[in-house]
Amino acid sequence: MHSSMILLGILFGLLAQAYTLPLKNSTAVHEGKARLKRRYSDEITDRDEMNAMDHILGVNRRLRVPRGMLLREGDIASSYIRSAITCPGNACLWPKSIDGFVYVPFIVSPLYDDMDRITIENGMQDISSGTCIKFVPRTHEANFLDIQPRYGCWSFLGQTGGSQTLSLQTPGCMWSGVAAHEFMHALGFVHEQSRSDRDHYVSIVWKNIIPDQMHNFRKQVTNNLNSPYDYSSVMHYGRYAFSEDGGPTIIPKPDPYIPIGQRDGPSMLDLHKINVLYNCGANE
To answer: How far apart are CA 178 and CA 198, in angstroms?
Structure first.
């Protein structure tokens, strides 16, 4: 009995000592494992923190790009670099009507169900409600958006002419914020952190980026429309976009804790920039 009590005392002492040990090293091990496992923004632990671009990258990382097409910056379909904001004579923009509106004709694949169509239309409405852009069902127009449930979420940049595919895979891309993001590409907008002046507002952490994805962080030659940098733009990458080990790839400055991007739809500055680019409110 006496020896049993001694053994219990020793065991209790060991447990008490273990309880008082610092947990930092243990936590670091778990964090290290988590960092090794995470490779794209869709693996953020709290899905409520994901913005539209996080979700797009999560869907598109499993995408096999169709032959003859490239995806720049994760979701811009192209065979060459082009930005509608700087295209000569605004040739890449959708034309403005004499009534002051910009009509963007579209067709929607019959493969979508009713809820998908509602999500897509909500993405359109989020843009139309605050700008002179009006998405209209195509009748006979030669240039139009052909919205298809292809593999992944992607769009060409600006108006390319003829039937222009915009892919919103279902169910993966069925967020209205994701739809609005791709529609803004179709209107001619690049990602916010690709702006020519981005280095004043964010730091790109090159060492944390997957080596063969660094090209996605190149700056574009852009006319920034005399508009402030928009951390809340629906066009902004997430903090961990293309992260190799789970570390941040984009850090806002001077305040590193500013939230970047969002999932709900265009920000007020997004709508403002559309209005500036398309000269909304002024007839030609």
So the answer is: 22
AA letter at 223:
N
Residue ranges for the known binding site for Zn(2+) are 181, 185, 191
Per DSSP, the three-state class of 236 is coil
CA distances from 159 to 102, 141, 149 (A): 12, 13, 20
What is the spatial distance between Cα 107 and Cα 126, in angstroms, rounded to a whole number? 18
Cβ atoms of 197 and 246 within 8 Å: the answer is no
Which of the following CATH numbers is that of domain 47-277: 3.40.50.2000, 3.30.470.20, 3.40.390.10, 3.40.50.11540?
3.40.390.10
Residue 170 has pLDDT above 70, yes or no: yes
What distance lies between CA 69 and its chain's CA centroid?
Answer: 19
Q: Tokens 């809820």 correspond to what residue?
A: 115
Task: Kindly report the pTM of this predicted structure.
Answer: 0.82
More confident residue, 220 or 276: 276
Specify the 3-state DSSP secondary structure of 41: helix
Active site residues: 182
- The pLDDT-based confidence of 87 (bands split at 50, 70, 90) is low
For the chain, first and last CA: distance in Å? 99
| 258, 252 Cβ separation under 8 angstroms | yes
Q: What is the C-alpha to C-alpha distance for residues 166 and 228, in angstroms, rounded to an integer?
A: 28
Residues 6+ apart with CB under 8 A from 10: none
Judged by DSSP in three states, 217 sits in helix
- Residues ≥6 apart with Cβ < 8 Å to 46: none
The residues, ordered by sequence, that sit 6+ positions from 194 with a Cβ below 8 Å of its Cβ are 73, 217, 218, 219, 220, 222
